[in-house]
Amino acid sequence: MNTRVDDISDDYATRTPNNLDALWLPFTANRQFKAAPRLLVSAAGMHYQSVDGRQILDGTAGLWCVNAGHGRREIIEAVQRQSERMDYAPGFQMAHPAQFELAQRLVDMLPGDLEHAFFTNSGSEAVDTALKIALAYHQANGAPTRTKLIGRERGYHGVGFGGISVGGIGANRKQFRNQLSETDHLPHTHAPAHNRFCRGEPAWGAHLADPLESLVQLHGAETIAAVIVEPMAGSTGVLIPPVGYLQRLREICDRHGILLIFDEVITGFGRLGAGFACEKFDVIPDLVTLAKGLTNAAVPMGAVVARKGIYDALMTGPEAMIELFHGYTYSGHPLACAAAIATLGIYRDDELFARAADLAPYWEEAVHGLRDRAHVTDIRTLGLVAGIELESRPGKPGARAYDAFTTCFEKGLLTRTTGDIIALSPPLIVERAQIDQICDTIGETLDEVA
Ligand code: PXG
């Protein structure tokens, strides 16, 4: 076969493709998108560059993941070095040193006895892995009837069958009717009637954890393996936990021998102005899921970190026996480990989590400055996250926020929308002037969209 010019040059990465047909895009209205594609071709610091040469300020850290900003030299070079040294090593009954180094550095960052890291390639895989570890733990611990998994309404835990089953987004479930049957859900914590325009954790709503007691009464504690929640729900529109809510979940779980899983795929790595939500809210879960900011999104990677007791319970039985029948070809991939180690080094050296905490009051003030703009019904902020909720157009949920998203993009700002909520989560390197630019652009946009 002849080598095509395109195989050796990478011109294709910077020009508009002639044909968009072959690709099926994820979570995208494919036909609408292909009629007017938005293409990004390069990125540095706080900015993307679009295919038509415009600078786009990144108001969302990609998809909540590029926490240290784009194109970090340390990560590029670490990945290049590892790529030349060794591309891949088998991960079952074999290993390579960098994954041990990363595991140690990662568990050293986490509070309490969260001491053992299992690597995956995405947040979805981390969630399914954590749910399976919970089941395996109870089985090893002599409680094999504990098989039910409790999620929460408006929870997002990725797109695996486990994740959508504990997840609480109707649209992500309806198309796939065959879900895990042994699941149930807590109510969500979104209560605008009490908590509108909340800065940080809302005061009202700790009791929204109490329905877990009712589920225990309904199903029996001896049937429940774990509860999984996002400490702050990101994807469904920045739903911030009420003061005391997570503590109360922890207490109820403890009382009934139920494992508590925090899905920190978004909240991990400084997003809330602390290393992790479990640290910020001072509640130690039994399992934590991570992804996104772990590698600054430079190479896909996720992780589950387990408390000592969980790991120890599974490290019993004959030594020659595989303890957990689970893993991925690319668990602990060398390039991902290199990217992650470099990323964690940047977070430490640039003190980015403290930076996020220092910037949070400025961010809060700036975003809440939009409260009197057209269409705004609620604004919620925490760390370097904001949700701006708009009134929906009658009969057209999501349309107004989608128009705001495309208008912002035309004005050089990347935002995210979910329903009629604009979600913002800039890289933690964002400057005050860029926060102003984000808010000014959104303000102008809200004046313009119908
Ligand atoms: N858990 C949580 C809490 C997430 O936010 C996942 C799991 C799944 O991760 P992967 O790597 O499998 O996608 C996520 C992902 C958005 C948005 O716009 C959020 C996510 C992904 C894409 C878009 O809110 N979160």
Question: Which ligands appear in the coordinates?
Answer: 3-[O-phosphonopyridoxyl]--amino-benzoic acid
CATH topology of the largest domain: Aspartate Aminotransferase, domain 2
The CATH architecture term of the largest domain is 3-Layer(aba) Sandwich
Q: How much helix, percentage-wise, in residues?
A: 25-40%
Distance from first to last alpha carbon: 54 Å
Uncertain spans, ≥5 residues at pLDDT below 50? none
Describe this structure as you would to a colleague.
The structure is a single chain. The chain has 450 residues and is α/β, with parallel strands linked by helices. The protein folds into 2 domains: 5-68 and 351-448, Aspartate Aminotransferase, domain 1; 75-349, Type I PLP-dependent aspartate aminotransferase-like (Major domain) (Aspartate Aminotransferase, domain 2, 3-Layer(aba) Sandwich), CATH 3.40.640. The chain is built from 17 helices and 15 strands. The strands form 3 sheets. Strands 4-10-9-8-7-5-6 form a 7-stranded mixed sheet, with helices on both faces. It has a 4-stranded mixed sheet with strand order 1-2-3-13. A 4-stranded antiparallel sheet has the order 11-12-15-14, with helices on one face. The longest helix is centred in the N-terminal third of the chain and has 18 residues, at 123-140. The radius of gyration is 22 Å and the shape is globular. The mean pLDDT is 97. Bound molecules: 3-[O-phosphonopyridoxyl]--amino-benzoic acid (PXG). 3-[O-phosphonopyridoxyl]--amino-benzoic acid (PXG) is lined by residues 63-64, 122-124, 127, 156-158, 230, 234-235, 263, 265-266, 291, 416, 418. 3-[O-phosphonopyridoxyl]--amino-benzoic acid (PXG) binds next to helix 3, helix 6 and strand 14.
